[in-house]
Amino acid sequence: MVNAPDTAAPNTGAPDPGAAPVLDVSGLRVEVGGRRVVDCLDLVLRAGEATALVGRSGSGKSLTARALAGLLPEGAARSGSARFTSGDGAGADLLSLPPGRMRALRGPGIGYAFQEAQASLNPTVPVGAHLQETLKAHGVARDRRRARGLAALRGAGLEAPERLWRAYPFELSGGQAQRVALALACVLDPRLLIADEITSALDPLTQAGVLDTLRARTAAGGSLLLITHDLAVAARWADRVAVLDGGRIAESGPAEEVLRSPRHPFTRELVRAAEPGGRVGAHPASAGSAPGAPAAAAARTAGGAR
Hints:
CATH architecture of the domain at 21-109 and 188-301: 3-Layer(aba) Sandwich
Shape: globular
Number of strands: 10
Strand order of the largest sheet: 6-7-8-3-9-10
Helix content: 25-40%
Structural class: alpha/beta
CATH superfamily of the domain at 21-109 and 188-301: P-loop containing nucleotide triphosphate hydrolases
Strand content: 15-25%
CATH topology of the domain at 21-109 and 188-301: Rossmann fold
C-alpha cells in the first residue's frame, strides 16, 4: 500500500461516473527512431476527474502526454485516435488535426504544464509579457489581457501577482516559477490540463500547494492528466490511476483500488519498490511484454522526454 504525504489536503468530492469523456484515447502508438515506445494505449479522461499516469522513468509517460498535445520531438510519429470533446460538445481527433488547428486548440482546449518550469519560460521576458503574449495569440482583447493574466497568477496560488508581473523568470524561486508555468497553462481556462511531472523538483509543502491548485480545477469541472512517478502523489490527488509499463497500460482503475490492492504483477512490484515518500526507487523487472527497454532508450533519443 502506498501512503499519501501528510502535508497534502485530502482528495475530496467524488467525480460523476456518468460524466462525458473529455478525451477518449484508443490504440495510441508512438514511435521514435523506428522504435515503438508507446503501444496500443487506451485511456479515458472525464470532466471533474484527475487521472494519474504513473510508471518508472522511461516507460513512455511524457511521450504519451506530448503525443496527445501535439508536442512530440522531431523524428517521432504517432497513430491511433484521441477524441477530444470541448465544452460545447464539439469533437475532434487530436491525432488527425492539422498543425494550425492543433495550435489553436492548445490553450483554450488543452493546457500543458511542463516538468522544467524555468526551461519553459524565456529568461529575457517578464512574467506579465509571457501571459499577455499567450492571450494575444488567442485573440483576447488588449484591454483585457492584464486582468486575465493577473487572475491566472492568483488562481495558480501566487500572492501579490502585481509584484511578479514585471519580474523575470530568473528572479523567481522554484515554486514561483512552477506556479507561473501553471498560470500560463491555465490562463485560457482549458477543459483538459496536462501536468507533466510538475512537482518533482519541489519541496513537500510547495508540492502540496501546487497539487491542491490542480485539484481545484477538477472540482470546477475540468479534467486533469497528471504525469508522475510519485505514487504518493497519485494516491492523494488522483481519482483514477493508469499504470504504464514499457509503453503499455498494465492496470487502471480507481486510485485507491489500484494502489491498495494491485492486481497486475508489475503494479504490485512497483508499489513494493516505492520508497517511504512514495517515489519509485527500484526498477522492477517488467511483468509485461516489450517494448520496455526500447522505451527508455528511445526516450533518451527524443531529447530526454520520459
